[in-house]
Design goal:
Blueprint lengths: L36 H8 L2 E5 L2 E4 H14 L6 H23 L6 H24 L8 H11 L1 E10 L2 H12 L4 H11 L10 E5 L6 H7 L11 E3 L2 E12 L5 H32 L4 E3 L1 H5 L2 H8 L5 H10 L13 E5 L2 E4 H7 L13 H20 L5 H25 L7 H12 L1 E13 L2 H14 L10 E7 L21 E6 L2 E14 L2 H4 L3 H7 L1 H9 L10 E2 L1 H6 L5
Antiparallel strand pairs: 1-2, 1-14, 3-4, 3-6, 5-6, 7-8, 8-9, 10-11, 10-13, 12-13
Helix pairs in contact: 3-15, 4-14, 4-15, 5-9, 13-14, 15-20
């Protein structure tokens, strides 16, 4: 029985890829194990926000908002939930225009939705096949996970692709060979060119390694070397350089993190089981790659590869790669055969958007192998998971919502006259893009000499009131920072009583005491920044398209929000 010879090739830019098996799975990075059909049915009809006949249900909000919060530097608050609900509603409102104009029937949209549905079907197939085989952790296992979670290891490794290779390296080590030399040369052999990085794994945390290597390395003492140990992607000899442990290992800390640890413990074992299951499927197939035909694709893909680190570039790759056209590009060209079945350029381009960015490089072999893997699993999943599956149905709706929104933005962008939106753009973004410091409203009292001002201040403090100032005329000023150098207006606390009185401050030969009444933001004038707006707006064209695509009769105030649903859709803030 032949197998994919390089499907798990070790040539990767990241020196930990050999044992971070779950990071090698294109679409299986971290998915919720506990999504159940009854939860989906229970929440689907509960509306979070709506406007006219357009609404966002709780399950859709929960899925998208949870993903947003994993990537956001902010924290979950009632205000952040409300803001994101309004954002989702606006996208849905804009997407509805695209639906009415049949943009969701375009090839781009259809390919995107199909790709997302296939992605979810692969998830569901693995979940249904493997989830029941993963046990719940017991208390000793959770305690062990807690200790490892609080322990960080700095490691080196010697790598071998096969047991024979690692045994040879271990024999050299036992005979007196230098560990550092063997680590560098073994890792450089498999794609780590920098001598200073080869073999040095840096700091390792719980869940970074496959289970077997993790079991070994957490038992090492500083400068101790392990015997050879297998991961899902090869063989390793480890050396522990340094160990660090967090101080807080008490019962209260354990109880606080117990639920999260249990989830991560089980998800980790599910991920590894999925990786093994995938390998068992792939080994049943024979693979032959036509490298010269694959190499010819790189000049067409390279421009997209260079832009994958930007949101706009990522969207362009998602939308355009599956329908890529070029004079010498034949979609029917066979790039590989899989157990005798042709895998064509069109197949490769259809699955390529799901391949992680590091594999979009001149040598496209690994990217091709990943797309073949996903294609094989998709065919299996299609036969096992119906489109009517509750979770698949939900994800289909979410994919359509996303695709309609971006298709509408693209259509609007193509006909957008930016100059028409200069004033609206300025008003909407002046608090973030065109802010020019603060201006402070100050109530001020002037005194001719220091004796009188200090006498008044002592009376204010003694009486704890502003009455000593009743007989003195006050003046109101709007003052910018440093406009009056001796007045520290930005440090004044806004109050309406005696506690905000500060001074005395010398100005124009008089002694002043001050009270801040309010601080207000100050903005650059529209007329001053108008010449710069075309360049600024061009960089923000997608945001402007969003503004332009919203119906004239839509306002956030007209939307109806279900605060009770927002509060309960996820655990407490």
């Amino acid at each position: 029985m032949a197998m994919f010879p390089n499907l798990n090739s070790k040539n990767n830019h990241h020196h930990l890829i050999f044992i971070y098996s779950f990071k090698r799975l294109t679409w299986l990075t971290f998915f919720l194990l506990f999504n159940s059909t009854h939860i989906i049915h229970a929440q689907k009809d509960n509306i979070v926000i709506h406007w006219q006949n357009i609404s966002i249900n709780t399950q859709h909000f929960k899925e998208e908002y949870s993903l947003f919060m994993t990537q956001s530097p902010g924290r979950d608050t009632p205000a952040s939930r409300r803001a994101y609900a309004y954002k989702m509603l606006e996208r849905s409102v804009i997407g509805e225009w695209g639906k009415r104009n049949q943009l969701d029937l375009s090839q781009r949209v259809q390919l995107y939705v199909n790709r997302q549905v296939n992605f979810v079907r692969r998830q569901r197939y693995l979940e249904q096949t493997l989830l029941d085989t993963i046990p719940q952790p017991n208390m000793p296992q959770l305690h062990d996970a807690f200790i490892k979670h609080k322990t960080h290891l700095r490691l080196q490794q010697i790598y071998g692709n096969t047991r024979r290779e690692i045994d040879s390296l271990y024999a050299q080590l036992q005979a007196g060979a230098d560990f550092n030399v063997l680590a560098r040369t073994s890792m450089q052999k498999y794609g780590i060119p920098e001598p200073e990085k080869a073999g040095d794994m840096g700091w390792i945390h719980w869940n970074d390694l496959d289970l077997a290597p993790e079991h070994v390395v957490y038992r090492l003492k500083p400068l101790e070397t392990s015997t050879p140990v297998a991961s899902l992607n090869g063989w390793h000899i480890f050396r522990l350089i340094e160990r660090k442990e967090d101080i807080a290992l008490d019962d209260a800390s354990f109880l606080k993190e117990q639920e999260k640890l249990a989830f991560e413990w089980r998800n980790r074992r599910f991920t590894e089981a999925a990786s093994r299951h995938i390998k068992s499927i792939l080994t049943a197939h024979r693979l032959q790659i036509y490298s010269h035909k694959l190499e010819a694709l790189w000049p067409l893909i390279a421009p997209y590869s260079e832009r994958l680190n930007t949101p706009e570039g990522l969207v362009a790759a998602q939308q355009e790669i599956p329908i890529l056209k070029a004079p010498r590009l034949n979609p029917q060209t066979i790039l590989a055969t899989v157990s005798g079945k042709p895998f064509r350029v069109s197949d490769f381009l259809a699955f390529l958007p799901d391949v992680p960015a590091p594999y979009w490089r001149r040598d496209l072999r690994q990217a091709l192998e990943i797309t073949i893997r996903d294609a094989i699993l998709t065919e299996i999943a299609k036969s096992k998971i119906p489109k009517q599956d509750a979770y698949v149905s939900l994800q289909t709706e979410m994919a359509q919502y996303t695709a309609r929104y971006y298709a509408t933005l693209s259509a609007v962008s193509d006909t957008l006259h930016l100059s028409r939106y200069e004033r609206a753009f300025y008003e909407q973004f002046k608090t973030t893009l065109f802010r020019d410091g603060l201006i402070t409203q100050v109530e001020a009292w002037a005194f001719p000499d220091s004796a009188s001002v200090w006498q008044t201040l002592r009376r204010i403090l003694a009486e704890k009131s502003l009455h000593p100032l009743d007989s003195i005329s006050s003046q109101d000023f709007w003052v910018q920072d440093q406009e009056i150098p001796t007045w520290p207006v930005l440090t004044l606390r806004v109050t309406n009583d005696w506690t905000g009185i500060q001074g005395p401050y010398l100005h124009k030969g008089q002694f002043w005491i001050l009270r801040a009444k309010q601080h207000l933001p100050r903005f650059q004038k529209f007329e001053d920044i108008q010449p710069k707006l075309p360049a600024i707006m061009q960089a923000q064209k997608r945001l402007i398209a969003h503004m332009a695509a919203l119906p004239a009769n839509y306002t956030p105030a007209a939307a109806q929000i279900n605060q009770a649903a927002l509060d309960t859709v996820l655990p407490s803030y």
